[in-house]
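Sharing a chain and its predicted structure for anyone who wants a worked example. Both blocks are below, sequence first, tokens second.
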Amino acid sequence: MGDTLRGKVAIVTGSGQGIGRAIALALAREGAKVVTNNRKPGSTKFAILGDAQLDALSNEKKEWVLKLSKEYSGDAETTAQKIRDLGSEAVPFFGDVSNFEVAGKLIQKAVDSFGKIDILVNVAGTFRFSAIWEMTEETWDYVNNVKSKSYFNCIRHATPLMMKQKWGRILNCTSQSWAGDVLKHAEYAAANASVVGLTRAVASELYTYCIFGGLVSPP
């Protein structure tokens, strides 16, 4: 365990599993107190594979996928418990942060639990596949209401608190798909491009308060 972030309080959206969970654990290992988050109790299972795709796999591949899923799946509570098992402090918050009021309650959870908010990491995301000429409005809204709307929601509620204490860090998770080179994935490319623009704009507005932002872009 390190102490680089000792005394800091972090929120990680979408940290029930996957990249969000890994980030939450990394922050905790450096001494941060963490508020974990996902929409509801229970694993969200696979981001890409549905039941039909899973059933189409051979028994050997299906067994491998299910084993991998069990290792990396979970929710806000299981991630928080893993952090507590490491000897750090964590509390879970269940709620869909694409809702403005729910995002406010997430930020307040950090204040109520640990007294402040220092670090906000927006990881929550989702996607679907569709050719642009077949894409429905519902598909577009489903993806873009998470990125970048939920990112805005959390940033909007967190920044007044960070500005008051004159310190904060905001990290937004995006994807290389923001460049628009993804087949049948236009809504996801647009959502991630929006995150890039949002992050740069927020960073330029807040640096005078010692609040710095950045992008996390897994391959």
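Comments welcome. The helical segments are 18-29, 51-55, 59-72, 76-85, 100-114, 137-144, 149-165, 186-206.
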